[in-house]
Amino acid sequence: MKKFITALIAVMIMAFSTVSAFAVSVDSPIATTEPETQATTIVPKPDDGNKSPKTGSGSDVITYLLIAASVIGCGVASVALVKTAKKN
Amino acid sequence: MSKEKKKTILIISIIVCAAIFLFAVGRLVIEQLGINLTGSTYNDTIESYAPDLTVGTTSENGVYVDEDETNATSSSNGKSNVVPAPPVDSKVDFKGLREQNPDVYSWIYIPDTNISLPVLQSSEDDNYYLDHDVYKNYSFPGAIYSQSMNKKDYSDRVTVLYGHNMRNGSMFANLHMFGDESFFNSHRYIYIYTPDRLLTYEVVSAHAYDDKHILNSYDFKKDDVFQKWLDLAQNPHSLYSNVRSGVKLDMNSKMLVLSTCLSSGDGRFLVQGVLIKDEKTK
Fold first, then answer.
1. Shortest Cα distance, chain A CAs vs residue B130, angstroms
2. What does the DSSP 8-state code read for residue A36?
3. Residue A80, domain extent
4. Does residue A84 sit within a domain?
């Protein structure tokens, strides 16, 4: 059980770190790579697509669905757990 | 299955569901905080670098005196409802802004809207400011920006500026106010400040359009292509549109297209203006 919870926490940390908003970037105080001797050339990235930039307000539908599903899942599992405990 | 095993599975399920719940709620909260932070960042930017163009305030000498006075409309209480314009000598502190970010090259101001914002263009990535604010921080609302196909002096036949249609009314969301006929009729002008000029554009039309990339799809150097665009500006094929009659457009016209997303669907909402005045600022 302990092993499982530890693994679960590890998976959660990894999942959160993939989301840029949750990821923490830490600058190393020690230089680990050789400094570049030549100035880097900036390569412009033109928009050569045939679609106009997407300037919508973003959709939170999936996030709300996840919240609803997790609440339902939590509720169902809790009820089942209580029933199991009562049988004992 | 043993009771103990069943119990363990149920506990695990509850933990997983709780973790998903926390993750989703956290995501929403962080997203909202980011949007609020960007909003206050832009308010601070206006107060610091363009105090004369603060949203919702009007300058004492800011009443636009138009030659034919058609900018004035009568409100229900009988008072003249003149839409104020910014003073010619409004000081946008471009020097200060450029110290923060050299990509800032102009400022857009539309009276009676939330739109009083710096305009940027990245030389590295045409869509960098789709999700980066004026200080180059990642932010979903991004900034108002043009792409490298457009010159920064607004000398192109068609200049396109992009901005998000934010649900909280920030960035270019207020462009949709031009979809309302009475607002459209009473608000004729869009103002662009550059470091040494004030450009006044008269709004020709506001209309829904498809998601075609305008500058990549049309070669406006060709007169016939440009003429077709002018025809579209004056006669958009859209039910969601307002058009001002009597505005003259010709081959010398300099068009400004403000582009944002529609509230639903894949289309865009365009507000098109034509340059009518180019003044030196003090």
1. 7
2. P
3. 63-88
4. yes
The range of the structural domain enclosing residue B159 comes to 47-280
Residue B101, both tokens: 């970010």
The CATH number assigned to the domain holding B271 equals 2.40.260.10
Q: Is residue B165 part of a domain?
A: yes
pLDDT in tens, B81-97: 455 566 677 779 999 99
Q: How many CA atoms lie within 13 A of B89 on its CB side?
A: 3
Q: Do A74 and B14 touch (CB under 8 A)?
A: yes
Report if residue B128 sits inside a domain.
yes
How many independent structural domains does chain A possess? 1
Specify if B212 maps to a domain: yes
Q: Is A13 exposed, middle or buried (0-12, 13-18, 19+ CB in 10 A)?
A: exposed
On whether residue A81 sits in a domain, the answer given is: yes
CA dist B159 and B106 (Å) reads 13
Interval B179-218: pLDDT, tens: 999 999 999 999 999 999 999 999 999 999 999 999 999 9
Structural domain count of chain B: 1
**Subunit contact A4:B12, Cβ cutoff 8 A:** yes
Average pLDDT over residues B48-72: 54
A51–B21 C-beta distance less than 8 A: no
Residues of B in contact with A55 (CB under 8 A): 130, 162-165, 171-172, 259-261, 268
Chain B contact present for A8, CB below 8 A: yes
User: Is A71 among the domain residues?
Assistant: yes
8 Å CB contact of B27 and A63: yes
pLDDT in tens, B140-186: 899 999 999 999 999 999 999 999 999 889 999 999 999 999 999 99
End-to-end CA distance of chain B: 84
Distance, in Å, from the CA atom of B53 to the CA atom of B247, rounded to the nearest integer, reads 27
* A46 within a domain of the structure (yes/no): no
A73 Cβ under 8 Å from any chain B Cβ: yes
Residue B25 located in a structural domain: no
The pLDDT assigned to B264 comes to: 84
Closest-approach residue (CA) in chain A for B29: A21
Tokens of A84: 């199991």
Model confidence pLDDT, tens digit, residues A24-43: 444 445 555 555 555 667 77
Given an 8 Å threshold on Cβ–Cβ distance, is A45 in contact with B125?
yes
Handedness of CA A54, A57, A62, A66 (dihedral sign): positive
C-beta separation of B183 from B192 below 8 A? no
Winning range, highest mean pLDDT, from B3-17, B39-53, B99-113: B99-113
